[in-house]
Amino acid sequence: MNTVFTRRLLAGLALLTIVSPMAAYADHDHHRHNNNWKQKNNWQKKYYKNVQKAKKRQYNNYRKVANNVNRDYWHTHWGNNWNDQREWYRHNLRNMQRAQQQQYEAQMRAQYLAYRNNNYNGSYGWDAYSEPGFLDYLHTRSPGLLNSIRSIIGF
Question: Measuring CA to CA, which residue among 105, 106, 114, 155 is closest to residue 138?
Fold first, then answer.
């Protein structure tokens, strides 16, 4: 009985000597190194949700700053009164696309003739339409046409 016990003890110690270094190599802490795709714990989900929230917050803050800069640019360059806005129209009427110019040119020509009491024989164009008196006339008599032109040129 003594030999059987000794044999078993030696076999167990030999097995333990072989297996113990393997246990040291089988460390399962790979989730600490951002390689956690197969582990189903909540740490990874919470981490990526927080990253997405931070990115969204950063983008929203950037948009707020950009909008404020645009608003400040508008107020410093074109002001908030009608005289400065007339100047802005004159500056931007030529930047419309050709199709949009043709679409509104007939309406503008009719309004310009009404403004001149059908006594105008000169050339028509965006330079004539940006006359301050005519823009005042459009502002009071035909605000719908003026608003549609505003939306086209990005007012």
Answer: 114
Stated pTM of the model: 0.38
State the pLDDT confidence band at 13, using cuts at 50, 70 and 90: confident
The C-alpha atoms of residue 53 and residue 59 are separated, in whole angstroms, by 10
Cα 85 to Cα 91: distance, rounded to the nearest angstrom: 10
Domain ranges of the chain: 98-155
**Residues 145, 111 contacting (CB under 8 angstroms):** yes
| Distances 111 to 22, 86, 116, 151 between C-alpha atoms, Å | 91, 17, 9, 19
116 close to 109: Cβ distance less than 8 angstroms: no
Q: Residues 45, 51, 56, 59: what is their CA dihedral angle, to the nearest 10 degrees?
A: -160
Assess contact for 84 and 78: CB atoms under 8 A.
yes
* CA separation for the pair 113, 119 (Å, rounded): 7
Give the pLDDT confidence of 86-133 residue by residue, as tens digits: 777 766 666 666 666 777 778 888 888 888 888 787 777 777 777 888
Q: In 3D, which of 121, 125, 103, 101 has the Cα closest to residue 113?
A: 121
